[in-house]
Specification:
5 helices; about 60% helix; elongated
Length: about 110
């Protein structure tokens, strides 16, 4: 099978859609790169802003707010506040025979 003379010297057709597709892919990758660089700077500035404005509790003002675990509340104090029935059963119970009133969960 021989190819006609008219078709031998024709360059292969590259459609304009393929070139446009390549430019679109390159453009999208550049856009993604730019977005990630901008977000990296935003995260960096957010970290420095948060570390500079950290909340520090003071001795006098911490207990006045009534916030949970403010002012160095110990674990036992927190348990007494959150589960008063269990702490009362353990401290004023009938000897060493105090059973828990709640099983699992909060």
């Amino acid at each position: 099978m021989e190819v006609d003379e008219c078709c031998k010297n024709k360059p292969a057709k590259s459609s304009g859609g393929e070139n446009m597709k390549n430019y679109l892919i390159v453009g999208m990758m550049v856009l993604i790169l730019l977005i990630s660089v901008v977000q990296a700077f935003q995260i960096k500035s957010l970290k420095t802003a948060l570390s500079g404005n950290a909340v520090r509790s003071t001795g006098a003002g911490a207990n006045a707010g009534g916030a949970a675990n403010a002012g160095g509340e110990t674990y036992e104090e927190m348990m007494a506040r959150m589960h008063p029935d269990q702490v009362a059963a353990k401290s004023g119970g009938s000897g060493g025979n105090s059973l828990p009133t709640m099983v699992g969960g909060c």
